Amino acid sequence: YARAGLPPVANPVVDTWPLYDWLASREPGDGGPGLPRLKDPRLPALAQALGVPCRAEHNALGDAYVTAQVFQRLLRRLERWGVTTTGDLLRIGDPKNALRDDPGASLPLS
Predict the structure, then answer these.
(1) In this predicted structure, what is the pLDDT of residue 31?
(2) Chain-centre distance of CA 71, in angstroms?
(3) What is the pLDDT of residue 38?
(4) Is 110's pLDDT higher than 50?
């Protein structure tokens, strides 16, 4: 928002990238979802990794629809890892965590 000259968002925000990255950092041997670690945080890469169809064109309505589907698939997986409260979701999905090298290791639930 700052680059666009807009004020920061005042309400809590959940970003699908840190949610995905947190889940992908869970080891399959420990019951993790076995999601591939991605270096590309863009929506098409997340959608593909989760099996959500995503068309190449970029528009607000299409992106909102794909984001909702990605979020729903992440929520189902998060619940299995004990992410059951809004607080847990906000802590893991905070966009500030998307820039960390290993967000999964630095964001325990307890």
Answers:
(1) 66
(2) 7
(3) 92
(4) no
